[in-house]
């Protein structure tokens, strides 16, 4: 039974005798035989080669690395090397074996000499345990068996699931706080003075929101005003500060968690470079290590290309803006009543859907560009390449996902001029205005649409596409095998069925785990950066992650071939990415409260212009009269010609801005509010960043238990040496 364990399976088409592909395949397999590999061939509709490495390869590894897998061996006999390490070493040797024509396995795969190379999902009790207790829905709320995942998929995958589980656990607290904030908004602020004034303003006639649109009455936006005040109030400010602290605490606690887990695995001081050198020497004793190199010229080229790509992504965000402007104009001229009345909301909704589609398309393009830039840099090792790739793709994805949101949050309605002098695209279409009840409503709609679409559609696609592929491949291959069985009644090789069933699973590549991490970091950005405008973001993320963990588990166990286990003692460069997002979250939320929301103008009004400043009436709300104060007056005769709808009544209409009546320049109030916004922004960011720094100092990265364990270990080793 033990003899029949195969480390890897190579699959190839059946080529003609003497053809170029067949000769290349033979040469590659001969190279493996020279290294002492046992090879077993099985013929079906394809050729399958089972590969098993000789024992001396693993003994060399244990000698060089001082047996790093002590902890994993207690389950088997002591000289047995764990399966994950076996697969990793064999994978390395296979991919670094060179034929006489200087071709490696990667080149042969590109030339279609081999179709696939993969380790096997074994029929072992560990796999059955994981299928029963991890990769199924009924265990959705139970603890993940991280130790078992590590024994089957290696440390890198185990750390991903440990991190995802920890992130989801802490998201629970953020989600709870978010819901409390929203409930507070609904109960305390729906009856706020500001929204009451908007609802009662049925004589205030406002300027049209687009060309040829009718004048409108301020009280029409009563419902929206109430909704806006559910998310735009004092509670949101506290929630934004809480989320900035939460992001820091989450990362600090994860560092502690990681230190504990990695110490249990005996990998705290593990060195990736040393292991790679050891495997190179085992594979080829004459191997010379590749030197570190750095070229400023290459770095400059890469930097310029990255900047160019970012400009393209920002250009796409501009295109979305232009789409919304033109869509608003077209919708408002539509003959359908519903479309005509809700033109701006329809434009925002369709714009958000279009934004989602651009995200899906650009994700594929971003990946190609990032890979190309990585090849330009010529990284030395696999992990260095992965780090370079990570930073580039995250930067591109960030701009793809967020440039449109940044425009809505900080530019929409602030760069479009004023009545009688609007900013126009190509001299024709008027730039869009904020929603009448404030810009934060637009941001709320956009965030909600993108988060819901992104999480539902992406998750469904992520699971169903591999599932469909798997089912189709299974269906496609079945008849031929049964026919062959019918012809030859001899006993079938037990390996054949196992190899075939593994081959039918979806292939995994280097980036399989990377994609999961990328998806989660983008989600983490959505959850923290604009959370002030969308307090439900942590709740949506929390619900999504509960499913995500088990969808990923099912994919890995049931639909995909086995991943090549990789060793790791942390989540790598992703930690720096998450820390950068934490700082962006402070800046983003500070800007949303200072610039997007009406929080500052209301406070300035209360403490500088309201009746509370002049006389002490405690029974009247201090924000009484705010709405009237925030409107400016416009004379109709100053409108641009050909843009006016029919009107009757008085010559004066109003719009939301702080401008003088005679020459439409900014009033003193505008500059007061502007100064207050800047002061608040500086104060908020400094306070939040200080609290982050204090939290980071207060929670040590490495628990005392781990430090003491390492201290004791060093002491014992030195004692033994003496």
TrEMBL record:
Ranges that cross the membrane: 157-186, 235-254, 301-326, 346-363, 389-412, 522-547, 568-595, 674-699
Gene Ontology CC, one term: plasma membrane
Record domain Anoctamin transmembrane: where: 149-710
Span of domain Anoctamin dimerisation: 74-146
Subcellular location: Cell membrane; Membrane
Entry GO MF terms: chloride channel activity; protein dimerization activity
Keyword annotations: Cell membrane, Glycoprotein, Membrane, Transmembrane, Transmembrane helix
Keyword ATP-binding applies: no
Membrane topology field: Multi-pass membrane protein
Pfam family, one: Anoctamin
Main location: membrane
Family matches, as InterPro entries: Anoct_dimer (IPR032394), Anoctamin (IPR007632), Anoctamin_TM (IPR049452)
Family: Belongs to the anoctamin family.
Protein name as annotated: Anoctamin
Species: Formicarius rufipectus
Species lineage: Eukaryota, Metazoa, Chordata, Craniata, Vertebrata
């Amino acid at each position: 039974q033990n003899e029949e364990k195969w480390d890897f399976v190579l699959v190839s088409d059946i080529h003609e005798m003497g053809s170029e592909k067949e000769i290349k395949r033979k040469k590659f397999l001969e190279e493996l035989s020279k290294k002492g590999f046992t090879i077993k061939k099985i013929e079906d509709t394809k050729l399958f080669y089972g590969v098993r490495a000789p024992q001396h390869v693993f003994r060399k590894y244990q000698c060089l690395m001082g047996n790093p897998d002590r902890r994993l061996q207690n389950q088997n006999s002591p000289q047995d090397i764990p399966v994950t390490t076996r697969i990793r070493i064999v994978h390395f040797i296979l991919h670094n074996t060179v034929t006489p024509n200087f071709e490696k396995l990667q080149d042969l795969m590109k030339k279609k000499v081999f179709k696939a190379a993969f380790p096997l999902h074994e029929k072992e009790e560990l796999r059955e345990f994981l299928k029963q207790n991890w990769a199924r829905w009924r265990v959705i709320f139970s603890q993940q068996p991280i130790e078992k995942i590590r024994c089957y998929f290696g440390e890198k995958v185990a750390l991903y699931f440990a991190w995802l589980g920890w992130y989801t656990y802490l998201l629970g607290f953020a989600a709870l706080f978010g819901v409390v904030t929203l409930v507070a908004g609904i109960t305390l602020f729906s009856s706020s003075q500001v929204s009451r004034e908007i609802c009662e303003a049925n004589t205030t006639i406002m300027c049209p929101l687009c060309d040829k649109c009718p004048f409108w009455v301020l009280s029409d936006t009563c419902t929206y005003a109430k909704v806006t005040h559910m998310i735009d109030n004092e509670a949101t400010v506290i929630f934004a500060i809480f989320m900035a602290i939460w992001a820091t605490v989450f990362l600090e606690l994860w560092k502690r968690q990681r230190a504990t887990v990695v110490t249990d695995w005996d990998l705290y001081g593990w060195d990736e470079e040393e292991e790679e050198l050891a495997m190179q020497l085992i594979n080829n004793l004459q191997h010379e290590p590749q030197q570190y190199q750095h070229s400023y010229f290459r770095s400059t080229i890469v930097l310029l290309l990255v900047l160019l790509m970012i400009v393209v992504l920002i250009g796409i965000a501009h295109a979305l803006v232009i789409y919304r402007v033109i869509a608003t104009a077209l919708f408002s001229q539509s003959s359908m009543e519903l479309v005509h009345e809700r033109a701006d909301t329809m434009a925002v909704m369709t714009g958000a859907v279009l934004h989602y589609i651009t995200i899906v398309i650009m994700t594929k393009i971003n990946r190609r560009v990032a890979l190309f830039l990585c090849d330009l840099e010529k990284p030395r090792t696999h992990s260095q390449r992965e780090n370079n790739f990570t930073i580039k793709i995250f930067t591109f994805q960030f701009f793809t996902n967020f440039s449109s949101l940044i425009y809505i949050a900080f530019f929409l309605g602030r760069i479009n001029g004023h009545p009688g002098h609007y900013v126009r695209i190509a001299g024709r279409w008027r730039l869009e205005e904020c929603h009448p009840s404030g810009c934060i409503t637009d941001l709320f709609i956009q965030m909600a649409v993108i988060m819901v679409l992104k999480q539902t559609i992406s998750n469904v696609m992520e699971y169903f596409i591999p599932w469909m592929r798997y089912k189709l491949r299974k269906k496609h291959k079945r008849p031929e095998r049964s026919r062959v069985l019918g012809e030859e009644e001899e006993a079938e090789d037990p390996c054949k069925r196992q190899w075939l069933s593994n081959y039918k699973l979806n292939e995994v590549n280097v980036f399989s785990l990377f994609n999961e991490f990328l998806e989660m970091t983008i989600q983490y950005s959505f959850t923290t950066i604009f959370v002030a405008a969308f307090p439900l973001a942590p709740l949506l993320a929390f619900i999504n992650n509960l499913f995500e963990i088990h969808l990923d588990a099912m994919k890995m166990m049931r639909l995909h071939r086995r991943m090549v286990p990789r060793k790791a003692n942390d989540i790598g460069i992703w930690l720096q990415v998450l820390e950068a997002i934490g700082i962006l979250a402070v800046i983003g939320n500070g800007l949303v409260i200072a610039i997007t929301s009406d929080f500052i103008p209301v406070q300035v009004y209360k403490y500088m212009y309201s009746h509370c400043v002049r006389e002490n009436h405690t029974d009247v709300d201090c924000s009484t009269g705010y709405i009237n104060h925030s409107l400016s007056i416009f004379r109709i005769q100053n409108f641009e010609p050909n843009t006016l709808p029919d009107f009757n009544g008085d010559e004066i209409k109003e719009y939301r801005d702080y401008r003088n009546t005679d020459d439409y320049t900014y009033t003193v109030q505008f500059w007061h509010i502007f100064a207050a916004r800047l002061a608040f922004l500086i104060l908020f960011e400094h306070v939040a960043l200080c609290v982050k720094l204090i939290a980071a100092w207060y929670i040590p990265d490495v628990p005392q238990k781990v430090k003491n364990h390492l201290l004791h270990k060093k002491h014992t080793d030195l004692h033994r040496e003496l």
